[in-house]
């Protein structure tokens, strides 16, 4: 079945009477945006979902209010904040936090890409990627869904399938022979081998599996399962991925499989020794916020959609399995509201109900915006905020980092120009002396080196103001943007001419707006980098 049909078959058929229809429609909009790479026009969303234009407009207005999308001209664009939904699943799963470092170390050791994947019905979904920076590299992202039969991890998970699982897989293969419902992979070749069940039996015997160019010509992988210490259940699979110019499939088995098995043994030891997680604080005030938003925006705010989405954020580290009471308490929603949302999510496959009256998130939550944003760079996160600041102040804005390999220069990584006759020309990639720029001084003030009195003052006040030191007529002010550890990884600035703004104007008028923008960029960075790496340039 094509991915861009009006609504998923699961949404159209057998909807429970207590399901929340606006929530189903909102999830469909997020999925279509995800499949499209994160950007669609309202008209394209109308066609992709089969929803009325007025419904699409109300849904996207609600998602924009929640910070999950933004309007960019005529387009609707996913924002980093939507990743908090996938973060809730990954935090509750715990596997990325426990195993990512081992996967990254293995990638460094082998100089090959390494991935972690979990089972998602009759597919596999990536929860971590440690890729190599090469011209020819693997382009899969965290959250991408692949058909089990075209992967190395697939046979490892399928070895534990029930007969019902096998029947579901056969039905999906018959309905979608070209894998159109898996946008992360090329269409299936008519000449592709159809020997999955044989590969499953071999994986059951060997304890590992190969992918010999099943995704596309040239791509090979070997995979080993990671088992839960107490039950022996396969909780994820670790794959080493390469291409045939570097390794043949047989070569992967002989040269890389032993080291992969050693890494998996260490991962299983980490799982055995991991301390029980302490629940972090659940989100607070969500029900109150949605009510206030409804009062402010009126009909344009779909409160049942917003309240339904808050249910997903009730889960997290130490909160992997929650009862209905737990969810209602964490979100501040009435039990009846939380119950209807959970019923809806169970119908959509985003939540699974356990025998002990608890609910857990499924890997399908990663369908909601995560893949297209999982490889964002810091400049990409910052650009819309820079444009908004420039539009507000009518002054050019810029983002910069300390140039790689030196602390003597800064390098511009993003900027937004103002529509003025006299303005600052910001060229991405250009370098300037760090000590003579406000951007550089903010970043230098955060280093571990002994600070001069001037930089000590910058660190204490949290901003740098430079007046015509780099060039006559150029006045600028900058503040830092910090990562999740509190380290200043980049800085954002506003530039002006002395005839337009005095030094006092820079501090009293520009600085508050600049700090607010830095906070917005920082929030997006913290959300996006919780389980993914966000390159600074």
UniProtKB/TrEMBL annotation:
Stretches for region Disordered: 168-202
Residues annotated as domain HTH iclR-type: 20-87, 302-363
SMART domains: HTH_ICLR
Species lineage: Bacteria, Bacillati, Actinomycetota, Actinomycetes, Kitasatosporales
Classification via Pfam families: HTH_IclR, IclR_C
Residue span(s) of domain IclR-ED: 81-273, 364-527
SUPFAM superfamilies with a match to the protein in the record: GAF domain-like (SSF55781), Winged helix' DNA-binding domain (SSF46785)
One example of a Gene Ontology biological process annotation: negative regulation of DNA-templated transcription
GO molecular function per UniProt: DNA binding; DNA-binding transcription factor activity
Signal peptide: none
Protein name: IclR family transcriptional regulator
Record-linked PROSITE patterns: HTH_ICLR, ICLR_ED
InterPro entries according to UniProt: GAF-like_dom_sf, HTH_MetabolicPath_Reg, Tscrpt_reg_IclR_C, Tscrpt_reg_IclR_N, WH-like_DNA-bd_sf, WH_DNA-bd_sf
Transmembrane segments: none
Alphabetic keyword roster: DNA-binding, Transcription, Transcription regulation
């Amino acid at each position: 079945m094509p991915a861009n049909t009006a609504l998923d078959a699961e949404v159209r058929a057998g909807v429970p009477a207590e399901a929340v229809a606006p929530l189903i429609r909102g999830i469909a909009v997020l999925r279509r945006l995800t499949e499209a790479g994160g950007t669609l026009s309202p008209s394209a969303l109308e066609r992709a979902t089969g929803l009325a234009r007025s419904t699409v407009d109300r849904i996207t207005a609600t998602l924009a209010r929640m910070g999950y999308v933004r309007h960019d001209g005529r387009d609707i664009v996913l924002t980093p904040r939507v990743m908090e939904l996938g973060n809730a699943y990954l935090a509750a799963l715990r596997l990325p936090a426990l195993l990512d470092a081992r996967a990254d170390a293995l990638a460094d050791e082998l100089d090959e890409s390494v991935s972690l994947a979990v089972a998602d019905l009759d597919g596999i979904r990536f929860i971590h990627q440690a890729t190599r920076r090469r011209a020819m590299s693997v382009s899969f992202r965290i959250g991408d869904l692949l058909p089990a039969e075209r992967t190395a991890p697939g046979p490892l998970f399928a070895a534990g399938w029930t007969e019902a699982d096998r029947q579901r897989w056969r039905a999906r293969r018959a309905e979608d022979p070209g894998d159109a419902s898996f946008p992360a992979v090329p269409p299936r070749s008519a000449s592709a081998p159809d020997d999955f069940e044989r590969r499953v039996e071999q994986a059951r015997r060997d304890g590992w599996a190969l992918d010999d160019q099943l995704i596309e010509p040239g791509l090979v992988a070997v995979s080993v399962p990671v088992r839960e210490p107490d039950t022996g259940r396969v909780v994820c699979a670790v794959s080493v991925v390469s291409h045939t110019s570097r390794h043949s499939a047989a070569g992967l088995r002989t040269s890389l499989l032993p080291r992969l098995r050693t890494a998996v043994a260490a991962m299983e030891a980490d799982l055995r020794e991991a301390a029980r997680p302490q629940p972090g604080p659940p989100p607070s005030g969500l029900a109150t916020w949605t009510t206030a938003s409804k009062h402010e925006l009126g009909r344009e705010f779909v409160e049942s959609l917003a309240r339904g989405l808050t249910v997903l954020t009730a889960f997290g580290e130490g909160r992997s399995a929650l009862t209905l009471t737990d969810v209602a308490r964490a979100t501040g929603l009435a039990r009846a509201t939380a119950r209807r949302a959970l019923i809806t999510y169970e119908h959509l496959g985003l939540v699974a109900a356990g025998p002990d009256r608890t609910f857990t998130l499924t890997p399908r939550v990663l369908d909601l915006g995560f893949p297209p944003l999982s490889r964002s760079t810091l400049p990409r996160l910052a650009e819309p905020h820079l444009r908004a600041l420039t539009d507000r102040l009518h002054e050019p804005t810029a983002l910069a980092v300390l140039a790689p390999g030196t602390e003597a220069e800064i390098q511009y990584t993003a900027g937004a120009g103002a529509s003025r006759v006299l303005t600052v020309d910001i060229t991405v990639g250009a370098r300037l002396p760090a000590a003579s720029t406000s951007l550089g001084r903010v970043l230098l003030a955060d280093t571990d080196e002994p600070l001069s009195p001037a930089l000590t003052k910058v660190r204490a006040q949290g901003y740098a103001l430079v007046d015509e030191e780099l060039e006559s007529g150029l006045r600028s002010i900058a503040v830092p943007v910090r990562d999740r550890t509190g380290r200043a990884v980049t800085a954002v600035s506003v530039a002006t001419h002395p005839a337009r703004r005095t030094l006092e104007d820079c501090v009293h008028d520009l600085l508050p707006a600049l700090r607010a923008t830095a906070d917005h960029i920082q929030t997006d960075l913290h959300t996006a980098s919780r389980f993914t790496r966000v390159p600074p340039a």
